């Protein structure tokens, strides 16, 4: 036994004398600069070392025979070298090539504006949508402070780069939302139905977007819902316009959120004088249930259901006529359901998709004549993504859309409807040439059963990073969209309108300052044109065309002024189009030439308050004056709105929010409604389309109730 | 019989523990943990992270090498000399290692604390834009860790540090923070640090607790 022990130790000693191999060398990047802190070691052993400041390394190993030396450093691809350790010193000169770092690599920013907490090339944080002064918690209103958009105060929807509101499609977790805005009367602004608190981030594209999105000529807005909430809690809101309660229950692998809200504008409107002639102030309620379930290691399933109802009745004066004018009553019921999933599978495959359905019913009483309109949108989607390497990924997707619309004159029992199925296939590849250069190319194919038309949309974009933070991107693509269902129901065989986008973008984020500048050119073909009026179109054809071109700048700064975050936006849009009832190419009313906004948020620690202000401005809306020759030859005075808000946190779980729009009391006019017949002097009389009230005042108290003492309202500020 | 069984068991246990101490994994871990404890520069944290990466490639079923590797990367992510992108790169690596540790040892109070610490480092890399959205995640991680092990002094002291920040933000008292510091100090005092070290269990954080306790006095 003893002898064995001695011989064994001898053996070990020997091997350490004869087997000691010294390994030295240098690790450099592709430019020849030494990489410090790289890890060099014999695979499968503890023998190894870190490189020094100049990339040099030296270590010894007692291993013998065939071995693998591994070289690895953060941000570089791992390299391995086969070698034979025989006691002879060895030297390695290693050049590591950089690996693609999704976190810091170049991203395509042409046309795109992201709100995200994790990504780099973002213009907004999700929380900004909630806290932008003047937005009053409306997602759309917050986005209207971004470049490429135009505020149309008597509409409230998103207007992007000379396109009308129907040219923007809205998605929740990748699935289309039909009727995302509340139903309203002409010239009474609407809001987005969905609360900004539902979402962890958004992707807003003002053009040149991915092949994943279609049936939108101008813009895509993709909203992503929150994953797992942090804790069980109740959220109570008491507002000047209503109130609501949300309960969140969190399990180990799942979570449930349920909420209910009720809004009634009557008490508020009885206190503050209104310019609109309300017979019944808007009243609405909504309920929501959202379920989240983790699935396997990396998968997620989300279910979301939202249903709401609203009622309003308003009198709208008719120019040249005495009395209250037309009475419009709208009773709306809306439901939206969305079931989505994502899952990561073996061999770098991942899948996502889901089902969504929305049903919108408007019971409209126009001067006591009942009309019933029903819109349905269904969407099913399945996408498979394969990462062939860290440089190349390929996305394949199939989609099915159902778009149905019916309208009925209830008393006359006259009903017409349209029921369209659309099948879509898209494919898109992302290829990183390096961390500095990325190319994305895609194709989107579609077929509509009603239009009996097949279409093909190629899309491409390229981004190049010049140094650490500045980058250029270009994007181009073709986009198809079928005319509004309200036109298609009159003439079922209408084909797609078509747009082409060309975008050039520069983007830089540096030290809490962001600058984004973009130039664009867009053409339109086959736009629907008709005679008659918007409400009763006749002789519909698709001979319209047009263009939009311009440039915009966005600058955001969180650094220059202490505790202050501000952004400034300017957009120039030059757009003309022949469409709807226009006989020639005109500048549309929703595309003011110059648009600007300034948003400021300032935190005052001693007051436990955040003060916010926002100013939105444009150079005026075009309108058609029948007293003059030509079309759309007139323009309103400039639009301007200065809003102010104050958020106060008396306790960590409580926030008091007060906001006022248009504090300067400017009388904004968005256009004019003209009489259909000239009066006795031969002139057409008119009524301005203005604001519902000079100012909008809002006060709300938001309280978070939770057993967890760490719950606070900080993330709502 | 009972007695002899006990003796055998004892001998076996002693042997196992001797064997355990003698095995190269244990030895190298003890050395590297103590190096990490004493590390005070970016270079040393890099060396430490590399060392634990070498250990984990040989011992992929142990959670501790991933844990300490992640810790070494979090310290790099807190290094003021690095750019935001470099900090995020280190913290992304830490996240990857924490995920591996968690897969081996789920619901481990120490690993959940480390996750919270990592998010805390992400916040401190860019507090202006991350503070509001991520502070809640940090606190919920420490809360979860303390729920599993109320005696986890690291969860308590890191939570105390967050509470100090919160108190400063809300302009309120530091009682809550100081209570947590005290709780953490009591836990540290009640634990046998040497035994923890010998079993490769986390034992860091006392220095921070002592430092914060001075603010409370």
TrEMBL record, chain A:
It is found in: Cell outer membrane. One of its GO terms (cellular component) is cell outer membrane. Keywords: Cell outer membrane, Membrane, Receptor, Signal. Residues 1-19 form the signal peptide. It comes from the Bacteria. The keyword Isomerase does not apply. Its main location: membrane. Gene3D superfamilies: Carboxypeptidase-like, regulatory domain, TonB-dependent receptor, beta-barrel domain. This is TonB-dependent Receptor Plug Domain.
Automatic annotation (TrEMBL), chain B:
SUPFAM superfamilies: TPR-like (SSF48452). Residues 1-20 form the signal peptide. Keywords: Signal. This is Tetratricopeptide repeat-containing protein. It comes from Dyadobacter koreensis.
